[in-house]
């Protein structure tokens, strides 16, 4: 009986990611700095990681057009950008100059890098003198490079959020270690995401 509702899980997780990003954005705007920001971001990233696999595993069976499934790419990219922008704004407004500088430098680098990669992808797509296989291979490599930089940005963002909390230093270092271990576990459990765009 519960199984028929699983088709809504992917959309619910995407909606949750957007709601959590909005909460982080409002915390930044109104300068409500709290340990909760770390957990809001982590929970939003977990929603982001799970929404796609859930949507693929439990698709809608009635074949009615759905707004979320029709514009899945735009909504996915939009929610990711909103979440990262909210995190960046929160860290830029946090009252610590070192966190502000690392956030600004890292954020500008990632934005510039992603713009360059997108330009390269569009350029390769327009090269008619390359075979379709060659174009596809080059584009896949660019997408994987962009994914690695994006994941590094998330890791740095989480680390900065950890160090913006009021937890004692040993707790902060423990959270960083847990994050590193979790990253390796996810990499081992989902090797396809590391090698296939």
Describe this structure in words.
- This protein has 197 residues and is an all-alpha fold.
- The protein has eight helices and no strands.
- Helix 2 (36-57) runs antiparallel to helix 4, helix 4 runs antiparallel to helix 5 and helix 5 packs antiparallel against helix 6.
- It is globular.
Main attributes?
197 residues, 0% strand
Low-confidence stretches: none
Query: How much beta, percentage-wise?
Result: under 5%
Mass-distribution shape: globular
The average pLDDT value, as a whole number, equals 88
The main β sheet shows up as: none
Order of helices and strands: HHHHHHHH
Radius of gyration: 19 Å
Annotation, overall tally of beta strands: 0
Helix vs. strand class = mainly alpha
Percent helix among the residues? over 70%
Count of helix runs: 8
Put the structure in a nutshell:
The chain has 197 residues and is an all-alpha fold. Helices cover 80% and strands 0% of the residues. The relative contact order is 0.11.
Layout of helices and strands, plus pairs?
Layout: H1 9-29, H2 36-57, H3 67-70, H4 72-93, H5 97-126, H6 132-163, H7 169-189, H8 191-195
Helix pairs in contact: 1-2, 1-4, 2-4, 4-5, 4-6, 5-6, 6-7
């Amino acid at each position: 009986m519960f199984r028929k509702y699983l088709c809504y899980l992917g959309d619910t997780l995407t909606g949750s990611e957007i709601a959590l990003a909005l909460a982080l954005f409002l915390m930044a705007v109104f300068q409500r700095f709290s340990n909760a920001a770390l957990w809001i971001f982590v929970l939003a990233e977990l929603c982001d990681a799970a929404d796609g696999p859930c949507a693929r595993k439990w698709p809608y069976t009635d074949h009615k057009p759905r707004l979320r499934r029709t514009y899945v790419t735009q909504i996915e990219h939009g929610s990711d950008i909103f979440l990262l922008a909210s995190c960046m704004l929160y860290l830029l407004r946090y009252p610590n100059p070192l966190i502000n500088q690392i956030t600004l430098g890292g954020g500008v680098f990632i934005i510039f890098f992603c713009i360059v990669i997108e330009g390269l992808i569009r350029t390769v797509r327009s090269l008619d003198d390359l075979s379709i296989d060659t174009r596809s291979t080059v584009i896949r490599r660019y997408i994987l490079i962009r994914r690695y930089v994006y994941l590094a940005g998330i890791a740095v963002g989480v680390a900065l959020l950890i160090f913006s909390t009021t937890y004692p230093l040993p707790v902060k270092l423990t959270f960083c270690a847990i994050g590193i271990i979790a990253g390796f576990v996810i990499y081992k459990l989902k090797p396809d995401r590391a090698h296939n765009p």
